[in-house]
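Person: Show me a sequence?

Helper:
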Amino acid sequence: MTEYDNTNRGAAFKPFPEQQLILQGKLNVMGEDGQVALIMAESRDGKKRIEVFQKIGCLFPNDKRGNEKAPDYSGPLDGLHQDWKIASWKEMKDNNAYMSLQVSEYKPKPIDDEIPEFGDNIKDETSGLKSISASDFMKLKTEKTSAEPNEDVPF
């Protein structure tokens, strides 16, 4: 039987009745500040302990824009994994609510390959500078460079 690969995946459930958030704060480990939460917990044999959890990221409500498969929450990871993001979906199984989690590498949305050169901004009479698309910029640049050189300009 093939084992399920849960790399970069997880799930979060309601706390156990014996788990209770008791404190939160900052902890410096090896020169790096981090946020921590202290949870009072109890082992199966009834022994109490305090579990220390370190914040690794945060989730914000996600605008699904009509895409039901989009995550309900998403956000960045912290610390060593700042180039990664976390996403979460609200789920229900056997009348128990939980959240499925997935982390993935953050890939910025692609931008136009053409970046205007310094000084090639277009002035707008009302607000100063005006944004233009890369294709419009290339048209302007082509018009600018394809014009006949002016012989009257001294060098």
About this structure: The chain has two domains: 9-105, 110-146.
